[in-house]
Design goal:
Length: 409
């Protein structure tokens, strides 16, 4: 990979005050003709001429850590002293989050797979919380003459932070660049149950089982617990994830999607190990309820149940970024060691060929306008929506902010 030239810090662009005006008869701002009417799935072929790869972003040096965390917590009034409590995760790794290099690698892999399929569609990468920002990617795409763009967020599930906030990032980018009326932006569906996302986890667990066997653990049903781990979010936001009319109940679509995918993976593996969905990386005031159990609490219950080993599966994550390296590879593995548990953390998708091919499949289904009943999905919850439904994934604290790729609010 070419040497990365780091540019001086620039503040994150401001929030949009409003979404772009919809065209007459259109219910979705800045949308293509295929999605502007707001139907759940786009079945009209669209000649997209660029792809926006949306990332979370991360610091790339010790001096970046606090400015990055200020971006992440913007609007919450958190003093730098409290940010330093989180900063040590990054400082432990030299102030560098791996997420930017991972997205550079994913972009390169997508470029290569698109070229292999004869698709002349460039990929532009932009972040929510660090340079290059989403507005930078949009500006670069526009400067190169691209006007009809398809966005992919590097998150598979439905919630405020993993879906709607990326849609807000798109609205912010259009406002920051002044490109309202000059670009059309759609977004691919959430891909939690797409085979390309699921396959790397299945293969990772198989490899994890082999690793346990090498350490003397072979009784999967009697000795092994599989912990599917994902990012905790506030209960109130989880309950609001997904469209309200689906009435998922406690945990909303976020918990339902993870649970369905975990069950599908265990079914594919055909093993009898006990498993559960656990959560990690919670933040915020302790009086606010977040999804539980925390992975470390779940680990502490295993010895009393006769478990000797654990497979930790980072089901909520697409790559080995900081929440995986610190919260799982550092804290959770330390907890397991203290408890005398044999622990193996399985792989994330990263640039696994099936994952990269799956993301390009998602692009191609929109290029072709593939009908919903012909789209691959491995659970009864999918295929998820191309156009987010009204009231989807509200943030309780902020309410509904301007967003693209969905029907207001």
């Amino acid at each position: 990979m070419a040497e990365i030239i780091r540019e001086p810090f620039r503040p994150k662009p401001p929030r949009a005050e409003a979404a772009p005006d919809c065209a007459p008869g259109c219910r979705v701002p800045a949308a293509t003709a295929a999605t502007c009417a707001g139907e759940p799935h786009a079945t009209e072929a669209v000649a997209y001429d660029g792809v926006l790869l949306l990332g979370f972003g991360g610091p790339e040096g010790q001096d970046d850590v606090i400015p990055f965390l200020r971006n992440v917590t913007a609007g919450r009034g958190i003093p730098d002293e409290r940010l330093e409590e989180v900063a040590h995760h990054y400082r432990h790794f030299g102030g560098v989050s791996p997420i930017n290099d991972q997205n550079r690698a994913l972009k390169a892999a997508l470029d290569a797979e698109l070229a292999r399929r004869g698709r002349d569609i460039p990929v532009y990468w932009g972040n929510r919380n660090w340079m290059p920002y989403v507005a930078d990617a949009l500006g670069d795409a526009h400067s190169a003459g691209h006007r009809r763009l398809l966005a992919i967020a590097t998150s598979a599930y439905s919630s405020y932070s993993s879906c709607r906030q990326y849609r807000e990032d798109l609205a912010d980018a259009v406002a920051a660049t002044g490109l309202a009326g000059e670009v059309e932006i759609d977004k691919v569906r959430q891909f939690f149950d797409h085979p390309g996302f699921v396959t790397p986890f299945v293969e990772g667990i198989r490899a994890g089982i082999d690793a346990l066997a090498e350490r003397g653990i072979t009784d999967l049903a009697g000795e092994v617990e599989v912990l599917f781990s994902t990012h905790s979010i506030p209960d109130a936001d989880a309950d609001r994830s997904g469209p309200p009319e689906r009435a998922f109940g406690a945990g909303g679509a976020y918990v339902a999607q993870h649970t369905a995918v975990a069950a599908q993976i265990m079914s594919q593996l055909g093993i009898d190990s006990s498993w559960q969905l656990v959560f990690q990386s919670r933040s915020g005031p302790p009086q606010v309820p977040w999804l539980e159990p925390d992975i470390n609490d779940a680990l502490r219950e295993l010895p009393a149940r006769g478990r000797r080993a654990v497979l930790i599966v980072p089901l909520g994550f697409v790559s080995d970024h900081m929440e995986v390296l610190w919260d799982l590879d550092t804290e959770a593995l330390e907890t397991a060691e203290e408890l005398g548990l044999v622990a193996v953390r399985t792989a994330t998708p990263g640039t696994h060929p099936a994952y990269v091919a799956g993301l390009v499949d998602l692009i191609e289904e929109r290029l072709a306008g593939t009908p919903a009943d012909e789209r691959p999905h491995l659970t009864d919850l999918g295929p998820w929506y191309d156009v987010c439904r009204p009231g989807c994934c509200e943030n309780k604290r902020l309410g509904f902010q301007p967003a693209l790729a969905g029907i207001a609010p």
